Amino acid sequence: MSEIEERGVPIEEPEELPPEEEEEEPRESRPLPPFVKLIILVMAVLVLAAGAYFMTQQVILPRISKSTVGERMTEVKQKLQKPKKKKKKKEKKGEVIRHQIAGITANTAGSLGRRFVTMDLMVLTTSEDSQKEMVEKEYEIRDALIVYFGGRTIQEISRREFLIAARDTVRSLINSVIDAEPVDTVFFTMFLVQ
Prior knowledge:
β1 (about 95-105) and β2 (about 115-125) form a beta hairpin. The mean pLDDT is about 80. α4 (about 140-150) runs antiparallel to α6 (about 160-175). The protein has a domain at about 95-194: Tetrahydropterin Synthase, Chain A (2-Layer Sandwich). The chain contains six helices and three strands. It starts with a helix and ends with a strand. The protein is an alpha+beta fold.
């Protein structure tokens, strides 16, 4: 026992002092677990990919296809509207000459490259000059046909009436490309819409 206690003086307990307000120290931030980082990274990549897809499908491709198809259609229309020099038709004395144009494929208008038409043609003429010129200018004929069918929607092409009328249009397109005697008839030997 202490002296104070021996004398019988009560010992007063010191008043408790309020604890000093401790300044809050910034908590150390715990690093994110690796799987949370991975999830955030995957989500960011998905958002960027979705944005890129949307921009490509809804903004960039429609502008490209509209301008390109529009320009080519104008050229084809001008070719069709040019007055063709009238040539004296010779009497059809020769035998029929067949010329096949195979494997023409064109993306249809408004399909953004997802729908297309594939066809093979058989062109009949009685002039060897016409047949030779079709062979020489087949690239021009193919181009005119791709532009023509590429400017049509899948709904137009799918109608029977269109296919019947397209024979005359295709014949006119071929005749606008070649300078020799006009071709007589055009047949679709294969016509596939995908």
